[in-house]
Amino acid sequence: MTVKELIKHLESLGKKRQNYSVRVIEETDYDEDGTAKPNHWIDDIEISDEGDSGYLNGEIRLIGNE
C-alpha cells in the first residue's frame, strides 16, 4: 500500500472516525497454540527518503507499541 492509497482510504472513513486509535494486527490475532497476541497501537511514524543510507526507495514506517 502506498501513502497515497492509505490517505485516500483513511479520508473515506469520514469525520466521525478521525479520532479513532489505529491498531496494528497480523492476519490472525492468535498464536498457533491459541494464545491471543498483544495489541499494538500506532505510536509514531518514521520516514527514510530515497537515497538515504541503505534505502534505494523511500519508506514510511508506522511504529507501534503495546
Low-confidence stretches: none
Shape: extended
As an assembly, this protein is single chain
In helices, the fraction of residues equals: 10-25%
Short account of what is shown:
By secondary structure, this protein is of the alpha+beta class.
List keywords for this structure.
3-stranded antiparallel sheet, 66 residues, extended, alpha+beta, 3 strands
Explain this structure.
The protein has 66 residues and is of the alpha+beta class. Helices cover 14% and strands 27% of the residues. It is built from one helix and three strands, in the order αβββ. The chain has one helix at residues 3-11, and strands spanning 23-24, 40-48, 59-65. It has a three-stranded antiparallel β-sheet, with no helix packed on it. The chain is extended, with a radius of gyration of 15 Å. The two termini are 23 Å apart.
List the helices and strands and how they pair.
Blueprint: H1 3-11, E1 23-24, E2 40-48, E3 59-65
Antiparallel strand pairs: 1-2, 2-3
